[in-house]
Amino acid sequence: MILFLAVALVFTFLGDALTNEIEVTSNPESNQADTLLEERLRGPHKATEIVIVRSENLTVDDPAFQEFVEDLCDSIMALGSDVIEEGTHYYLMGYEPLVSADRRTTIMPLIMAGTLDDASDNIGQVREVIQEADGQGEFEVLVTGEASIGNDFREGAQKDLETAELFGVPAALIILVLVFGAIAAAIIPLVLAIVSIAVALGATALIGQAFELSFFVTNMITAMGLATGIDYSLLIISRYREERSRGLEKIDAIAVAGATASRAVFSSGMAVVLALLGMLIVPITIFISLATGAILVVIAAVMASLTLLPAVLSLMGDKVNALRVPLITRRRSAKQDEEKRGGFWDWVSRGVMRRPVVSIVVTAGLLLAAAIPAFDINIGHAGVSTLPDGIQSKEGFLILEEEFSFGLVTPAEIVIDGEIDSEAVQGGIERLQTTLESDPAFSGPFRLERNSSEDLALLSAPVSGDFTGDEAIDAIKRLRAQYIPEAFSGVQANVLVTGATAIMIDAFDVTSDYTPIVFALVLGLSFVLLTLAFRSLVVPITAIIMNLLSVGAAYGLVVLVFQKGVGAGVLGFQQADTFEMWLPLFLFSVLFGLSMDYHVFLLSRIRERFDQTHNNSESVAFGLWSTGRIITGAALIMVAVFAGFASGDLVMFQQMGFGLGVAVFLDATIVRSLLVPATMRLLGARNWYLPKALQWLPDLRPKGRKGL
């Protein structure tokens, strides 16, 4: 573990490893177009920023307005060519599209130097100039564009991360105190979670030196690190304390906890990792980044639980029970509790198993009902309009939309690869431009650029509306499917479309193509793991069905709250027309893995008891009774952590936190506490069916106890 802590020290290099860019790596049409532009026309894509100058009383025809704009442009250009590559304004060009209809607003397009990440690093200098000029005289000055919007999303993500930590960590500590009844035992899981997060950040920084990762990876690591790191430690510490209360010596109690709870943690962690592997095969950097961060922190949490935690328990011994909280301290031993079993969880398990069919119908019916809204899912991307009010880039976007077109920042870029000076290609370009001028979704002005060899041209066509909105998406789809084929019919030229909207469409198409592959991979790997862990074919089949019910319910509730707005205002969420593009696949992978935590832990206790008694009903009741409080506490911790993310400002994290929190809550209550015992009661000894043809599979249960 010391080695991994050393790795954690390199997380200071994390900033250099993260990027604002999201790339589809499978070379779709937009990538092909960008490659042509980079190699034969303009080099790497440059970020566009738009400076907006407006006045309530003056117009652009007033000398004072002209003087202000020219001085502002000089101040911005004085930042140097390594910050601003190109800038222009109305008074240089006399170009009327740079002026609003009422002539009280003008825009100043800027081309940032370097890559998008360079622009993100440098946009702060531009904003300083804008901030100093804003409010001078009678003028309001704002800036919006690719770099400023990206930075606002990045700053919003960091703010949401801080909010999640501020809310989630104290809530988790309170729940741990309630579960353990001792402050010392409650602090240990938090410490191990923090260690796991630090290790994962360090490993991410190392990987990021070779492969750039999305800045969202830090949010992913923190969320999963707190959730799994605390839960895994909670399970092992609980089992250690239980064995100590039975009278085992310290070392023996650690050994039993290692042979039982630690094995369950290892199986759970591997189930999460296998589920997350599905996202790694999707050739989009956002999925690769999220999966990388989550896998690293889960592995770190498992290793900390299996190595560092036993060492801590060995050093502390019974001091883990220090600083007891009198009102909630359990004074009875585990043996006494078992002999006089009863209470809520025993009542629940036996009540459910008395009427297993009714329990299955009711619980499965509730989950299916919750999943129904998912059929109306509208997958898209959180645009500028979902940023919180008061953010300058959003205010600038709204002004551009109202008086100009935000398409000036993110135009459709039509790349024509062919003999540009030929009559046929020229005719195709003219026909296409005429068609675009007749479509109100393409707002103009159109700009045509050619390379020096006259074998490549770029036609830029601003698109109305938010580049992530339905209007822009439909416009690009018409352009690709209808306008270009009609305009260039019979012409020897390869015409491709790129730009922010086209890239998003390609990413969505790639995600759709890979979704069934990811589902099949995750389900297949989970089936194999559970079959090996429990030597049963029935257990993995029922587990997969139940997990799919949980995921479906989570999808449905996210759509119901965010898309349809049911309860969004009451819960403090922002209603959005779309389900964030990466979330469905992300939720499936993460929830499928996290669901295994409780399933593996519950079934481990049931299987352990069944191997000892061969009484299925009693084993199920014992498993639920012995794990109910722990699973509930672990679930509440996860819900608290994810609720912290849901309380942020960015709608994508609101959807993520709400979806994860609701699914974990449903999984730990309806599924694990009701559906699992009812199903296992109905199936009886068939739960542990393994055909003779598979008896050769290795028995992973610890010898002497025959149970995880």
Descriptive account of the structure:
With 708 residues, the chain is α+β, with helices and mostly antiparallel strands. The protein folds into four domains: 1-29 and 181-340, Multidrug efflux transporter AcrB transmembrane fold, CATH 1.20.1640; 47-150, Alpha-Beta Plaits, CATH 3.30.70.1430; 344-398 and 514-708, Multidrug efflux transporter AcrB transmembrane domain (Multidrug efflux transporter AcrB transmembrane fold, Up-down Bundle), CATH 1.20.1640; 411-498, Alpha-Beta Plaits (2-Layer Sandwich), CATH 3.30.70. It is built from 24 helices and twelve strands. The chain has helices at 2-8, 14-17, 29-40, 63-77, 90-93, 116-133, 146-180, 183-208, 217-245, 250-259, 261-280, 285-316, 334-339, 343-354, 356-371, 392-403, 423-437, 470-487, 500-534, 538-563, 568-571, 583-613, 616-646, 651-683, and strands spanning 18-19, 48-55, 84-87, 105-112, 139-145, 213-214, 379-380, 412-418, 447-450, 456-461, 493-498, 579-580. It has a four-stranded antiparallel sheet, sandwiched between helices. The radius of gyration is 29 Å and the shape is elongated. The protein starts with a helix and ends in a 25-residue tail after the last helix. The model is unreliable at 331-336 and 704-708 (pLDDT under 50).
